[in-house]
Amino acid sequence: MLARSAEGLYWLGRHVERTENLCRLLREHMSALVDRPVREINFGWRRIYGTLHRRPPGPALGVAESDEDYALADSYTLADDITFERTNPGSILNSFSNGRENARQMRHCISAEMWTCLNLGWLRLGTRHIEDIWKAAPEEFYADLAREMNLFAGVADSTLYRDDGWRFLQLGRLVERAQFTVALLLAHLDGVRSYAEAPDSEWSSLLRICLAFDTYKRHYGAEMRPARVLDLLVDDPRLPRSLCRAVDSAAETLAAIALGPGPSGAARKLAGDLTSTMHRPWPGVPSLEDHAERLRRLAGECLGFHDMVMAAHVSYDPEGAPIR
Predict the structure, then answer these.
(1) The 3-state secondary structure of 50-119, one letter per residue
(2) Rounded distance, CA 96 to CA 86, Å?
(3) Contacts 24+ apart (CB under 8 A), 279-283
(4) Most buried by CB count within 10 Å: which residue of 16, 195, 202, 246?
(5) Phi and psi, residue 292, nearest 5°
(6) Domain ranges of the chain
(7) Whole-prediction pTM value?
(8) How many CB atoms lie within 10 A of CB 67?
(9) How far apart are CA 5 and CA 3, in angstroms?
C-alpha cells in the first residue's frame, strides 16, 4: 500500500476517534454544570485540559494548577475553546476538519457511504458556534456529534473492504483510543490528589466517559471503589474501551498488516512488549500512585508505538528500504 494512503487512513481513524472522545468528555461535563458545587465543576475542567495537555484560555492562568485558575474563565469560554477554537489544534472543530480532509484525500480508499456520513456530520458541526449550542442543552449537541462518529465507525465496518487500508484505519482509532485513555486516567488521578477524598461522583463520571458505568454496576454494584474502577478501565480485556483491549487490538491489527519498508519487525516487537506490560500482574496491592506511575510508563510506550508505526510504513528512508 502507498505510504501516503496508509498515513491518510491512519490519521483519518485517529481524528474521528479523537472527535468522539472529546464529545464524550464534554457531554459528561456539560450535563454536570447544573446544581453542582464549583469545586466539582472545576475538577471536570481540570480533567479535560489535563487530558488534552492544554492550558485554559486567559492571560493570567499560567499552568492552571488550582481551582481558582479555572474560575477566571467561565464554562462558556472554556467550552468554546475546546469545541470551536480554530487556533486550538486539538479542538473538536479542528479534529473533525482534519479527519474530513484526510477522507477527502483518501476518497479512492474509502466507501461512498463513509464520505457521505462524514459530510453529514460536518453539516452539523461546521456552521455552528458556541452561542448556538449554548441556548438550549449543550450536552445534546455533543451527544449527537458523538453518535455521528459512532455511525461513521459502523459504516466503515459495514462497507470497507478488509484490506490493509481498513487495518490502517482501525490502527489509527486504536492508537488514539489508547493514548486518550492513558491521558484521561492520568489527568483524573492528578485531579484526585487535590481532594482529601474524591467524591464518588467523580469516579462515576469517569466511568460514564469511558462508557463503562453500566458494566461496573453489573460487576461491582453501586459502591465506587477507585481500585476497581481502574482495574476495569485499564486491565479488563472484555471492556470495549479498556486500555488493555485497545493495546491488544492494536498489536493484532499491526501484525495483520503487510510488512512495511521501514523497521516493521521493531514495530511488531514493541507492540508485543506493550501487550506484555499490560498483562503483567501486580506484585502486591497497588496504590493510586502505583497506578499513576504505571500509566506514565504506558503513556511513553504508546507514543513510541505510534512513532514506530510511522517509521515502518510512512516516514521510512526510501534509500534504505528493501526491494520487495
Answers:
(1) HHHCCCCCCCCCCCCCCHHHHHCCCHHHHHHHHHCCCCCCCCHHHHHHHHHHHHHHCCCCCCHHHHHHHH
(2) 12
(3) 279/244
(4) 16
(5) -65, -40
(6) 3-313
(7) 0.91
(8) 17
(9) 5
